[in-house]
What does this fold into?
Amino acid sequence: MSGSTNERPVLVLNAGSSSLKYQLLLPETGEVRARGLVERIGESGSGVADHSAALEVMSTRLRHDGIDLDEVPLRAVGHRVVHGGPDFSEPVVIDDAVLDRIRELSTLAPLHNPAAVIGIEAARERYDVPHVAVFDTAYFSSLPAEASTYAVPRDLAAKHSIRRYGFHGTSHQYVAQATADLLGRPLGDLRQVILHLGNGCSASAVRGGRAVDTSMGLTPLQGLVMGTRSGDVDPGLHAYLAREAGLSLDEIDTVLNKRSGVLGLSGVNDFRQLEQRLASGDADARLAFDVVVHRIKHYVGAYLAILGGIDVLVFTAGVGENSISLRAGVTEGLEELGITVDRAQNAARSQQARVISPERAKVVVAVVPTNEELAIARQTADLVG
Ligand code: ADP
It folds into this structure.
């Protein structure tokens, strides 16, 4: 065995039902040794039968790149798990009981947790090191009761663990701290609204580092308009679609999760493609863009009221970090609230965390790249020592 502990990398795994995203990195420095994606797991003709086979593909690729995990062994494996339910408010070292509980939480996240379980099982078999689960919901487990409680009968809510859980928590937490670092101000002093805008989208209100509200709910379907997800709709829509369109509950779930959002409105789900259509004058693309912006403003306004004013508005994730037009749209007309961007700074291309509001603006508007893998690696390393 060679290398001191902090030269040994952490492997971060994000298992989907037919994909496995991996990153091998050093949590102290953030240095990425390798990253990649194995796709089409379990599909006929892909040659990758299951998640065990996907790990084999990964280690073959690593060896190809001169990384032999037998020579420089892993420190630990950090697993991204979407739903921690009412049980997990912190990362945990995975033992059989924890794994059973994550499996049971599949009732709350049928689209996500089963894949995480399969990924964990395959990785535990292969790597005899501590495995840690980092939950997407954990950061929001401290939401105040008035924000996490749905106004449905309390006995029903208690029996079925119904509450607002929130998702993308690892990202919101990381970005909240990174924003404080960027501004050189203590996290404890800041009231932040954070907009995580990727394929999935969520907003959070953060006071002094603690999340006090977030737009996703019991499931990752609530809130902002996303690539293929509707976000907020009238809760009566389900009953209406069942009665009027004759759709089953599963069909309604599929429509709202996979065929709605930007895709449902414009025919494309990728934001770059939406922007191309916008530029060519496509009316559906225009409406989709306007609906996305309107919904984001709705939440910015709500969180301003909940926080009693904000110090910083933060854009992150693929769309938030890169779309000049979306940031311009969201901040347009908010000057009276102290929110405005400098046109040139907003348009400047950069991979770095940066401020895009004018110098004396009341509210700082910032673009802060998220890094969920690094956050997971750090939380994993902290836990296993
Ligand atoms: P995920 O939620 O899958 O992690 P990302 O955070 O990577 O997603 O965000 C993906 C989204 O970011 C896609 O809709 C993509 O079109 C968008 N995106 C990436 N780069 C740009 C860009 N330069 N301009 C506009 N949108 C972009």
Remarks:
- The mean pLDDT is 96.
- Residues 185-372 form a domain with the Nucleotidyltransferase; domain 5 fold (CATH 3.30.420.40).
- DSSP finds 15 helices and twelve strands in the chain.
- Residues 341 and 383 are 40 Å apart (CA to CA).
